[in-house]
Specification:
single chain, alpha/beta, 4-stranded parallel sheet, oxidoreductase, Putative short chain dehydrogenase/ reductase, NADP, SDR_fam, Sc_DH/Rdtase_CS
Length: 247
Amino acid sequence: MGRAIALALAREGAHIVCADLKPEAAPHSFEEDKHIPTHDAISNNGGVAEFRKCDMGKPEEIYELRFHKIDILINNAGLWLPLRDFVEETDDMWDRMMGINGKGTAVSMRQTIKQFLKQPIDPISGSRGRIVNIASSAGIVAVAREATYGASKAAISMLTRNAALDHAKDYINVNAVCPGVVRTALSSTNFQDPKIISEMKKGTPWPRLGEPKDIANVVVFLCTDEAVWVTGQNIAVDGGFTVGIPL
């Protein structure tokens, strides 16, 4: 999902910094060109991109990501663990999930907002900067066997609203996209199980499951001048998953 978002923003002229654990794409991802690191894929197509090592579970590494100017922050890094009943989850799982999905997102947002406040308001867009957090439809409706994951994503959704409320006066846009079932490396174990795929399709009204580009398209919109009056929103991009169960 992060790769699709980075490529889509680069096509619109953004200079991209890919901050991740490592430059290589996950070996179990579905992209045909996954052997090419995202920042290289962007550069090979005439864009501007670089890679920086960052573990979202380690705030000190986020603090080291310093920039003289930043226009857009996409908080896409996250942790998901295989499905299990809540009683089978552990304290370590809770700490890791909340540390990466919750605290990591909060730290990167604060650091970015501090930089935004040093920058003038863009005379064309009327914004100082945009933040788009990747939350989840699992943070909107309960999904069986995803208790801690859902709680961490619900935290991101509310954090998005609170930060947007605090910093609307500063001309800073903060929004979140809440994906439904999307075929990514993170969820690859689900997409390797025909029974799980069948169940996921039953819960998604749209006739197909999601692809990373579905999320990237909405993220790009939220970063455009046309979306400058949109802030504090959690936009479900889920094929109708959060609307209800289809017949």
